[in-house]
Amino acid sequence: MGEFVLTIGLLLVVTFGYMFVQPRALLGLADRVLTTRWVFLAALVRLMIGAALIASAPAVKFPEMVIGIGWLLALSGLILVAIPPTALCRFSDWLPSWPRLLLRAFTLIGLGLGGFLLFASLT
User: Hey, how many other C-beta atoms are within 10 angstroms of the C-beta on 97?
Assistant: First the structure.
């Protein structure tokens, strides 16, 4: 089960590393997902990965932290479904006005979470 945490950590590091280098890729992804029905698939994926992280937590070094990250992911999936589509579209329209530095700051959060999951699964 620790391999799952390792895989998710690696996926987060690679994805957010690319988005750190190309912050406008984050905007394109957010626009495509938040303004279409793909938002439901994104919510389901978050919920499933969160549940899998919770189930895999005993196999890693810091299980309480991995459980917390799993609960945050699961909760974010549920919240994403509860937000009205008009609010998601407004957010998607507002996101391009953010400075690149702020977009990069948000990608650092994803890089940090992915790095922590890598560390927790490898130690």
Answer: 6
How far is 35 from 29, CA to CA, in rounded Å? 10
Q: Which residue has the tokens 């998607």?
A: 92
Whole-number Å distance between alpha carbons of 75 and 66: 14
Residue range of the domain that includes 58: 2-122
CA distances from residue 7 to 2, 114, 119, 121, 122 in whole angstroms, order as listed:
9, 9, 12, 9, 11
Instruction: Dump pLDDT digits (tens) for 52-88.
Output: 999 999 999 999 999 999 999 999 999 999 999 889 8
**pTM beyond 0.70:** yes
Distance of alpha carbon 75 from alpha carbon 36, whole angstroms: 21
Please count the structural domains in the chain: 1
Burial class (CB within 10 angstroms; exposed 0-12, middle 13-18, buried 19+) of 101: exposed
